[in-house]
Amino acid sequence: MEYAKFTPLPKTDEEIIEEQAKHTTRQNNIQKFVDDNNLIKVYPNPISNQFTVEINGDNNSYGFEILNSMGQVVSSGKITEKITINSSDLSQGIYFVKIKLGNNFVTKKFIKTKTI
Into how many domains does the chain fold? Predict the structure, then answer.
């Protein structure tokens, strides 16, 4: 006996938009929780030659990226609790540290001033 193959129907635009909205809401809630509880710190801010990224209360290893204001990755690495990053090669401007927490990301903005 041969069985018919089941092919799922493609998702409608409304279903896709609803999934994206749920993901965005979840992402915003995680970012708010991290910000409200000061779980991730970037200091000093503004920075000049180096800065520190610290994840409070967690000794797991997480991937991070440093993004310029155009969204381009200018550096990346791993962080466990705390890392000091040399920023003397960065130009002046606005940057973001993007940390991957499981299936989500948390970002922190910092400003790079003139290298001393």
Answer: 1
Amino acid at 61: S
For 8-41, what is each residue's pLDDT tens digit?
Answer: 667 777 776 777 666 666 656 665 666 655 678 8
- Does some domain include residue 8? no
CATH of the domain at 56: 2.60.40.3080
Range of the domain at 44: 13-112
User: H/E/C letters for each residue in 3-49?
Assistant: CCCCCCCCCCHHHHHHHHHHHHHHHHHHHHHHHHCCCEEEECCCECC
Q: Given its phi and psi angles, is residue 33 left (phi above 0), alpha (psi -120 to 50 degrees) or beta?
A: alpha
Write down the pTM of the prediction: 0.70
Nearest-angstrom CA–CA distance, 95 and 105: 15
Q: Would you mind telling me the total number of residues written for the chain in this entry?
A: 116
